[in-house]
Amino acid sequence: MGEEGTHVKRRRHTPEQVIRKLHEADRMLGEGSTVPEVAKALEVSENTYHRWRRQFGALKAEDVKRLKETRARERQVEADRRRPAARHRRVEGGGRKARPLDLVPWLDDAVHAAGTRDRKRRLGMTDWNAVLGCDPAEYCSRVYASRPAWITGYIGFEDAQFLFARVLTSGADPLLEIGTASGLSTAILCHAAHAVRLAGEVGDAFTIESYDIDERFYADRSRRVGDAAREMLEPALLEHVTFRSPATAADVSAHHGPETLAFAFIDAAHTHPWPTLDLLTLLPTLSPGAEVVLHDINLPIARPETQHWGAKHLFDGLDVERKLGRGDPPNIGSIRVPQDKSAFREQLLAILHGYEWETEIDEDVIQLAVS
Ligand SMILES: C[S@@+](CC[C@H](N)C(=O)[O-])C[C@H]1O[C@@H](n2cnc3c(N)ncnc32)[C@H](O)[C@@H]1O
């Protein structure tokens, strides 16, 4: 049977109708109905029901109006693009803005070495305020504020803003994270990926993969790594996240082919040489032009009681295109993997061996990274 089988008449639904039907579905499921029963009552196929869940499940009813406005704006932006003079006039005239990248700190470089010219153009034109219904920084603040009270040892507020903005700018899918811990940063990544999806830059099936060496949250062994993300993300968003634990950068190539990853966030062990080893280990799976966000790049300065220099040695030692977060000193930054990956690898090896190691590392871990 096809998507709309012989028992279900094909019919177009408006976003409002879909949301109403999904609410009805929630009610029925809450009362114990099965998905086939719900689909039948809604007069749609099960495939359609699941597709709606993927597409709309993460939206609240009030988001629908915004979504429609966004679509109308996107159509207008596209129309304007075809008439460059008209776009110019609108922006200069103080009317609807076609490209508000500079509304958001750090979203100033839509020119992305890894992107196609067409994608660069679209990313540069994305009206994130329209997509999200508010300034992206505000949106990210709301996500951050929804973190559970029990978490600790997570990314700071300004660093979360930076991470969120880098995902919006990169438009990458999948997103990789090394170092899940409570999963606050995972939730930030997931919301950012969802925003990129709403902007039409990635497909419905966008994914976030988060790796942690530990299955349990280090500060509270009664919880699993990622439990904060499980609390913070609605089911329809959470299903885009894959938690891998116990797992490390060494496991990534089992799930991703060579040069298939365009975005990674490394926030795992911070003693030297761990961050450098993590990046070396990931390198074969990273595409030229990939963006790698590094956390705790000034950890021993920002928190003198934690003399872990690994991320700082790595970030400071690389001679590549990079971005810095806010803060004094900034504790987050991102680097771009150059087109010449073998020269980049040489830089990483020089950093690896250029500083005293702050921890012992198993020989097989080193071999995997440098081989
Ligand atoms: C600083 S916490 C991550 C915080 C998290 N990114 C956040 O902001 O919510 C570091 C995490 O990295 C994990 N970790 C340590 N060494 C690791 C390794 N070699 N590979 C993967 N994860 C590691 C730890 O178990 C810990 O959960």
What is the structure about, briefly put?
With about 375 residues, this protein is α/β, with parallel strands linked by helices. The chain is about 45% helix and about 10% strand.
The stretches of 5 or more residues where confidence is low (pLDDT under 50) are: 1-6, 83-117
Computed Rg: 22 Å
**H/E element sequence:** HHHHHHHHHEHEEEHHEEHEHHEEHH
Q: Order of strands across the biggest sheet?
A: 5-2-1-6-7-9-8
Please, what is the average pLDDT?
Answer: 83
The counted number of beta strands is 9
What is the structural class? alpha/beta
End-to-end Cα distance, whole Å, is: 50 Å
CATH topology of the largest domain: Rossmann fold
CATH H-level superfamily of the largest domain: Vaccinia Virus protein VP39
Please write the CATH class name of the largest domain.
Answer: Alpha Beta
Helix content: 40-55%
What hetero molecules are bound to the protein chains? Answer: S-adenosylmethionine
**Tally of DSSP helical segments:** 17
Whole-number tally of structural domains? 3
Indicate the proportion of strand residues: 5-15%
The profile of the biggest β sheet is: 7 strands, mixed
Structural shape: elongated
